[in-house]
Amino acid sequence: MRTGLYPGTFDPITLGHIDIIRRSCALVDRLVIGVAINRDKGPLFSLEERVAMIEAEVAGLKGASATVIEVHPFENLLIDCARDVGATILMRGLRAVADFEYEYQMVGMNRQMDASIETVFLMAEAQYQPIASKLVKEISRLNGDVSKFVTPAVNEALKRKFSD
Ligand code: ADP
Fold first, then answer.
1. Which CA distances in Å does 62 have to 35, 142, 147, 162?
2. Which of these, 7, 33, 112, 118, has the minimum number of CB atoms within 10 Å of its CB?
3. Whose CA is closest to atom 2 on ligand 1?
């Protein structure tokens, strides 16, 4: 049984994340989506809201593959979270070169802390590659249309958040 951990902030989950989740399911038997609490980043959505949105979105993927998907909030070191959930593979999405330098350092340092965990990089479908939660929030806050970047449910959640 191969378990992968896909960590992120998911503030909120986008079509880019969902694409990576779908691709990860083709590689592992069990996929744990690790939701970083990330108090420092000052997330727009609370941990509970982010987890609920992810759970609602992955519910729609369940029939498509035999992979078991779980959502797991975490606040500790990524490699400790991987050990806690029994994951031996870290799944990461790679967008442009901008992601590369950070990811390169993360792999290098994580590997020295735990050599048994392998990191796998996946690329989303072309139209989803430029999507970043940060820009989705910015566009939605300014009343722009993010329907090409998030699901209708997440779009509604963003609208509610910004009309509060
Ligand atoms: P963001 O950087 O958008 O705030 P996260 O921290 O939640 O997103 O990212 C979690 C993981 O998902 C990271 O590995 C990130 O590179 C990946 N990811 C996010 N958006 C995309 C995308 N559009 N295409 C591919 N990977 C993505």
1. 19, 34, 23, 30
2. 112
3. 132
Distance 11 CA to ligand 1 centre (A): 10
Ligand 1 atom nearest to CA at 131: 23
Q: Tell me the best of 5, 44, 95 to mutate to test the pocket of ligand 1, counting ligand atoms within 8 Å of each CB and taking the most.
A: 95
Claim: this prediction has a pTM higher than 0.85: yes
DSSP 114-163: -TT-EEEEE---GGGTT--HHHHHHHHHTT---TTTS-HHHHHHHHHHHH
**What is the set of active-site residues?**
17, 41, 95, 133
Domains of the chain: 3-126 (3.40.50.620)
